[in-house]
Amino acid sequence: MWSSLFLALREGLEAALIIGIILIHTTKINRNDLKSSVYFGAGFGLIVSVIGGFIGFSGAQEMEGASEEWFEGIMMLAASGLIAYFILWLHRNSDVSNSVASKVSSNTSRISLFVLAFLSVFREGLELMIFNLTQISQHAGLVAAGNILGIILAVAITVVLFKTAVKLNLSVLFKVLGVVLIFLGAEMFGESLLKFYEDGGELLEKAGFALFMLPSLYILLKNDLRRMRVTRKQADV
Q1: Spatial separation of the C-alpha atoms in residues 52 and 69, rounded to whole Å
Q2: Environment class of residue 183 by beta-carbon count within 10 Å: exposed (0-12), middle (13-18) or buried (19+)?
Q3: How close are the terminal C-alpha atoms of the chain, in Å?
Q4: How far apart are CA 187 and CA 12, in angstroms?
Q5: C-alpha dist (Å) from residue 172 to 53, 55, 95, 101, 179
Q6: Which of 94, 201, 205, 218 has its Cβ near the most Cβ atoms within 10 Å?
């Protein structure tokens, strides 16, 4: 339940923050009339994600034996791949807020904002569905409860951030989430190797964990480490 809660929190937080940024930017450009399209797009994306997730999880739970093990292994590889992609994306896109705002500025029609909001939510929902499919051996109620609590928490955090005077630094927020995600991704990657080769044992799982974690942490924190070295050199001078 806890892993599904955290993954839902991360996916929900990203979707909620992006929707929040879109809404704030429509206010800044004096286009409050576009907000309804954003709400409808986000709502439709959520509905499609929930229906797709329910169908996918229910179908996957009917698997048994070797097919279940292989399916979980494939989903774990896919989930760890998504986390690796997120780390690379975060490394290349340091200013999330301006990136979203520029998309809104260049797409100010109702249809374009509906599509932007829909895709923002549906993409995160699709990723969450893949993460959930790595847990088909668990009780569906626990996975669903973790997802619901995580999404509620994500929305609550987003509302607090946007409704108060808290200065939002999305880069730092996503980086913190990224570190935790790396450990989850490393765990899933190590477990996926065992699904395909059980004789590898704990050694194979630990090797997979390290193989995923070390490069991912380096990519995520490379710019920060570089800035720290530059700052230290300047201080020494």
Answers
A1: 22
A2: middle
A3: 51
A4: 21
A5: 30, 35, 10, 18, 11
A6: 205
Closest CA to 10 of 185, 229, 163: 185
Residue 60, Cα to own-chain centre: how many angstroms? 22
Tell me the C-alpha distance between 154 and 162, whole Å: 12
Global pTM value: 0.76
Residues 6+ apart with CB under 8 A from 144: none
Closest to 3 in 3D by CA, of 114, 124, 149, 113: 149
Q: Which two tokens stand for residue 206?
A: 């630990």
- CB-CB contact of 181 with 83 (8 Å): yes
| DSSP calls for 87-123 | HHHHHH---HHHHHHHHHHH--SHHHHHHHHHHHHHH
Domain of residue 142 covers 2-236
Number of separate domains in the chain: 1
Which two tokens mark 13? 């937080």
Per-residue pLDDT of the chain (237 residues; tens, 9 = 90+): 677 888 888 888 888 888 888 888 888 878 888 899 999 999 999 999 999 888 888 888 888 777 888 888 899 999 998 888 888 877 676 556 666 666 666 667 889 889 989 998 998 999 899 888 888 777 778 888 999 999 999 888 888 877 765 555 666 777 777 888 899 899 999 999 988 888 888 899 999 999 999 999 888 888 777 877 777 777 665
Cα–Cα distance for residue pair 105/186, rounded to 1 Å:
38
Query: Is residue 125 within 8 Å of 46, Cβ to Cβ?
Result: yes
